[in-house]
Specification:
3-stranded antiparallel sheet; 5-stranded antiparallel sheet
Length: 142
């Protein structure tokens, strides 16, 4: 669909409802809960172990000029093999004053990141910018 047909993105839910995105909070004005999660990723097809040790957030309001109001929880999920068990760690919280999060996320072959907000972001007035992470190759254990 070409740009400009609708003012906001539209989604069709499996529950039979049509959802208009990027249009404030819920209809009663309360803050919404949600999450954004990456897919699993690895370094060199999983031949090397990696670790994550820093995250730099870039959140603003949808208007792009003011910091967002609320708290976002950053979680990391890791596993050693594609069909192995998944371990989840909370890596920190992000607020409007957060410059960076330093932590040690244990070595793994595959990881994914998850950002959660549970009714804490005012009217879901949140825009993701360019995030930065420090991921290092830490060894090989094939």
């Amino acid at each position: 669909m070409p740009d400009g047909i609708f003012a906001n993105p539209i989604a069709f839910g499996t529950d039979g409802y049509i959802y208009r995105h990027e249009y404030g909070g819920t209809f009663d004005g309360t803050a919404m809960s949600g999450f954004l999660e990456t897919a699993y990723f690895d370094i060199e097809d999983g031949a090397n172990l990696m670790r994550l040790d820093r995250y730099v957030a870039d959140f603003t309001t949808r208007k792009g000029s003011a910091p967002f109001v609320g708290t976002v929880t950053l979680k990391g999920k890791r596993k050693m093999r594609p069909h192995g068990s998944e371990t989840t760690d909370t890596l920190g919280t992000i607020t409007s004053s957060t410059q960076k999060n330093d932590f040690i996320f244990k070595e793994c072959r595959q990881m994914k990141l998850r950002w959660e907000f549970a009714g804490t972001v005012s009217n879901c007035d949140l825009r993701w910018g360019v995030m930065s992470v420090s991921i290092k190759k830490s060894g090989s254990q094939r």
